[in-house]
Amino acid sequence: MQLFSKAFWLQFSSPKAFYPFAGKLIPWFTALAAVFAVVGLYLSFFVAPTDYQQGESYRIMFIHVPAAWMSMFIYLVMCIYAGLGLVLNTRLSNMMAAALAPTGAMFTFLALWTGALWGKPTWGTYWVWDARLTSELILLFLYFGYIALQAAIDDPQRAARASGLLAIVGVINIPIIYFSVQWWNTLHQGASVTVTQAPTMAATMFAAMIVMTLAFWMYTIAVALVRVRQLILERERHAAWVLELAEAEK
Description:
- Helices cover about 75% and strands about 0% of the residues.
- It contains 9 helices and no strands.
């Protein structure tokens, strides 16, 4: 039960302790991402039935929907880490927020791009200024703004404060994205999967979507851990343990 104890996780709250711990986790999450991706793609393109209205073009949903989910979920997690960094002034929290931002931006772009490809055969156009699409585009700009602030300010603490405030202010966009199809009359279809109702799709379609979401989730964790280890080495480069590590690797 040590894994679930508070003391177990508190010991990894410092960059020095978290660095080797993250290194041990990366291969596991990378392997899980690969397994889930292979299974998810197989279910999506070879097992899930053809949609009776959209034909085969609907299969882009198995990339588009998980990417859209991850774009919002990563932003929320990034915002939590940024808030912890602002309130508790914890270096590792700020680093985790910075490590998540590029992956969140990638999934937001992927959601927009696949949505455009799906929109052409469905709506007859690649883009409309729909409430869901526009708010998702704003999310991409929020990610870009966060990354730009991190890069523009040399002092890591000032950069973390400025970008953290932007992340917290921008979190209001997440419920706008999620509820936009209910609040406004939009072209975008409503949610097929909710926490309060059974999925309005075939079981194999639902399974494929969930497995692809798990693949994206495992990938996000693996990449974030790789990136945060790089940030730790960069921002703690003058610490004695980092200098010792550099000497050991020579």
